[in-house]
Amino acid sequence: MTQDVDDPVITEALNWFVRLRDAKLSESDRRAFEAWLAKDEAHDAALRHAEALWKRFDIAQPEFDKLRHPSSLSRRNLLLGSLAIAAGSAGFYAVYGPDVFVDHRTAIGERRTISLADQSTVELGSNSALSLAFTAERREVVLHRGEGFFDVAPDGQRPFIVLAAGGSTKALGTRFDIKYVDNVVNVAVIEHAVTVEAASSPILMIDKGWQVCYDKARLSKPSPANLESVEAWRRDRLVFDDVPLRRVLAELDRYRRGRIVLLDNQVGKIAVTAIFDTKQVDAALRTIADTLPVRIFHATDYLTLVSAAG
């Protein structure tokens, strides 16, 4: 479904499909829909495709009910569940992703501290996953998704390196936070320093109180980090200061079962300043709907769609 909603025509059609299901649809909304439908022959096909996507999600939903608890996950019910969902969609991977067999993962809303073999520790945030590869030469961690707070034990003979999204962060006897959400990695240093290498850019040294972000295309310049905000997730809080709504929704998505899908790129650019409780995501969504020009529609227990109001 993710690839489909990246198609602007399908996204627009899905937006209309959702709005037409809303009991509060106005007459002007209906006229606008009819004008949109008549504007291009491709819109009718896109609308039918949007309806098919909707039905596909409905087929997958019963399997979400069965498989949503990580404690009950086994290789057997993984295979049975994925076969059951295959007829409808790649829904299983919407829940667990291709990293289901990593060394450590957390459930939605869970935080867990992991003690590593070298006496280092990692506190994993909600819906996060990592793998370990410790050898006699180096200590390597792969953060597949989510967030981790690293407290690294010194070892002059073996560097401690965290890989995420094609980039690497090397600890220099330090404590630091790495967040990998919405295809962007953010590295913030709490103590001492790290080096960050990504996107074919020169290696950067990041000192205490500074942060840097990168994706596969670029590595940003270091900027000051509000360390209380960086670590707020460890106290069940998410702090946003003039952050695009797209990123806010991606963060909230990690703390709620199912998917939050943004249907309007312009809406995603709206700046948000707020503090949300990670245990009250639905309340956060209500606040967003009440204070911003957006429409939030809970299509099912597992699918929430966000679009422009009106």
Automatic annotation (TrEMBL):
Domain FecR protein residue range list: 104-194
PANTHER family, per database record: PERIPLASMIC SIGNAL SENSOR AND SIGMA FACTOR ACTIVATOR FECR-RELATED, PROTEIN FECR
Domain FecR N-terminal: 12-53
Native source species: Pseudolabrys taiwanensis
Family matches, as Gene3D superfamilies: 2.60.120.1440, 3.55.50.30
Family matches, as InterPro entries: FecR, FecR_N, Ferrdict_sens_TM
Signal peptide interval: none
GO molecular function terms listed in the Swiss-Prot or TrEMBL record: sigma factor antagonist activity
Protein name: FecR family protein
